[in-house]
Amino acid sequence: MKSNSEKYFEKLSSRILMFIDLYKEEVIKKILNSHRFIKEDEKYFYTIILKTIDSLNGANIFIRNFDNVRSFQVPLFIIIRAILNDIIISEYIIVNSSNDEEQIKLINSINFEHIKYIKSSIKIESKIRKWSEQEKQEKILEIIRANPKYYEKNGNEKFKKIITNVGSLVDSVLENSINDKPYQLIGVAYILYNTFSKLEHFGELSFDLVHKPYKDNKQSSQINHLFSSIQVIIAALNNYCRAWKNLEIDFDKLKSLEIEILKMTPDFTKP
């Protein structure tokens, strides 16, 4: 006979899969069919949506067996941390842009971080590969020439640097929140992200955290962290699909399934 926790995670997992399938049909398929992933802001949110949906789909086997296979909890929370990181950056973009032009400028600045990192890593790579100074400079020039979107012809950067440290982004949003009210989605996302970061980055707390799944008296907090994360992820996904105007998405269906999942607050005291 299945325990209450087994029944709960099976039902939760099933509802998440229903949401994923509906989201793929109502949002991702319609974006692809209408080629609405070319414009910079739509391209950004489409990429975030696809990455999040695929990550949630892949993690769902861990959710289904959350209590049965305790060794799944650590990798699950590491996956969720990566999703929350994207959500925090996306919320920063939404809150700090009042029109499409400002939003695209912010997206370009954030996207530029990849290119800047590749360029800065040439210094270390040149030592590993034993390049000469000339070879190193040629590699840097290749990156600049290959990215005219981000660099002037003289090599100067076109976009202002944005500090993409998650804590700084959240602090900036909360400082500028309307009427001094905490910005709920990004606030909860950050608290959870910060909790899971101790699993991702090795340190003083690592030993205790990797053993936490095996302690029965810690399962209540583990389950609550999971459920809160799912709430944030689904709310964010339903928020981001509204970036596509004039696309016939059934928002009511998506919202209805979100509400159904939100009502599944874990309580194993009931028979």
Shape: globular
DSSP strand tally:
0
Our measurement of the CA-to-CA distance between the termini, rounded to an integer number of angstroms, reads 13 Å
- Characterize the main sheet: none
Alpha carbon gyration radius: 21 Å
**Helix/sheet category:** mainly alpha
- What percent strand? under 5%
**Poorly predicted segments:** none
Order of helices and strands: HHHHHHHHHHH
Helix fraction? 55-70%
How many helices in DSSP terms?
Answer: 11
Please state the average pLDDT score: 92
Which features does this protein show?
271 residues, mainly alpha, 11 helices, 69% helix
Commentary on this structure:
The chain is an all-alpha fold and 271 residues long. It has a domain at 4-96 and 176-262. The protein has eleven helices and no strands. Helix 2 (40-64) packs antiparallel against helix 3, helix 3 (73-95) packs parallel to helix 10 and helix 8 (184-200) crosses helix 10 (219-240). The longest helix is centred in the first third of the chain and has 30 residues, at 4-33. The model has no long low-confidence stretch (mean pLDDT 92).
Short description:
The chain has 271 residues and is mainly alpha-helical. It is 69% helix and 0% strand.
How are the SSEs ordered, and which strands pair?
Layout: H1 4-33, H2 40-64, H3 73-95, H4 100-120, H5 122-129, H6 133-146, H7 166-175, H8 184-200, H9 206-211, H10 219-240, H11 251-262
